[in-house]
Write a structure and sequence with these properties.
- The chain is α/β, with parallel strands linked by helices and 274 residues long.
- The protein contains 12 helices and 6 strands.
- Strands 3-2-1-4-5-6 form a 6-stranded mixed β-sheet, sandwiched between helices.
Length: 274
């Protein structure tokens, strides 16, 4: 995505259309669009030709962008789990790992970054009915690996609103749920985690369309991405007007939900009831 955004910036600065850029590398306009969105792999020769077309002659700048192209084609650690993941999900894992800010609303279950291993296992078993025990465990392992990034010293900011429904719906037995509530209480006290609970008592709210995640990146050239998971696919929205709507909905959810301290009290009450 970073390389694609750099190429788009260079193309637009020269006033070159996507069609003309595609012609220069023997490709279609849609291929250039997919390259600029970071949704296809990059051939070194194509990047070299585009840089020449865009008037980039400085060797240091060319070398930097060509190095980025090589990095972009290296498979991430999560690709080894592709056989137990839906086809659309590895893209999300890569974006999540690159994000500096993760904002989300969840209504069905606890967000994957905040799940305990036991709770995650119960969720995965429910979602992968008929899967072998080995495949279930590999999926759980991937979820635990994703969480390591959140817990690093330079981990991303994580602002999550959980609907009370996600907490009331049991996955696993009472011990699993008690452990999950305790984990949420503890992890919500980390400086990079802001956790709020939208209580039933509030009534209707701005999250009525369902769960969503907004990913923001440290590179200023990268636009925010909204991730929407569906039953058989997922949507990745990066148009400004789309992202703005979801940011507005999340801001309202945060304003309408009790703050982190009150939300921890709610979690303590649920832990006692479990």
């Amino acid at each position: 995505m970073l390389l694609g955004s750099q190429l788009r910036r260079l193309r637009e600065a020269r006033g070159i259309t996507r069609e003309a850029a595609g012609y220069s590398i023997r490709a279609s306009e849609s291929k250039i669009s997919r390259m600029e969105l970071g949704r296809v792999s990059f051939k070194t020769r194509d990047v070299e030709d585009l840089l020449t077309l865009y008037g980039i002659t400085d060797e240091a700048e060319r070398a930097s962008l060509l190095s980025l192209a090589k990095e972009a084609n290296v498979a991430g650690w999560w690709h080894s789990y592709s056989d137990v993941l839906p086809s659309w999900f590895p893209t999300y894992v890569g974006l999540e790992g690159a994000a500096s800010l993760i904002r989300a609303y969840e209504v069905q279950f606890v967000h994957g970054l905040l799940q305990t291993e036991a709770y995650a296992r119960a969720v995965v078993r429910r979602g992968m009915k008929g899967a072998s025990a080995e495949d279930v465990e590999r999926r759980v392992t991937l979820r635990m690996e994703r969480q390591k990034h959140l817990l690093e010293d330079n981990g991303p900011e994580c602002h999550i609103v959980l609907d009370e429904a996600a907490l009331r719906r049991p996955y696993g037995d009472r011990e699993v749920m008690r452990g999950q509530f305790q984990h949420l209480i503890e992890i919500s006290e980390r400086p990079n985690v802001r956790l709020q609970v939208m209580p039933f008592g509030f009534g209707g709210h701005s999250g009525e369309s369902g769960a969503f995640t907004i990913l923001s990146f440290p590179e200023s050239d990268l636009s925010d991405v909204v991730y929407l998971e569906q039953l058989t696919s997922a949507l990745y929205l990066d148009k400004h007007e789309d992202v703005a709507q979801y940011e507005k909905a999340l801001k309202e959810l945060q304003q309408d939900s009790p703050g982190p301290d009150e939300s921890r009290d709610l979690l303590r009450g649920l832990r006692q009831l479990s």
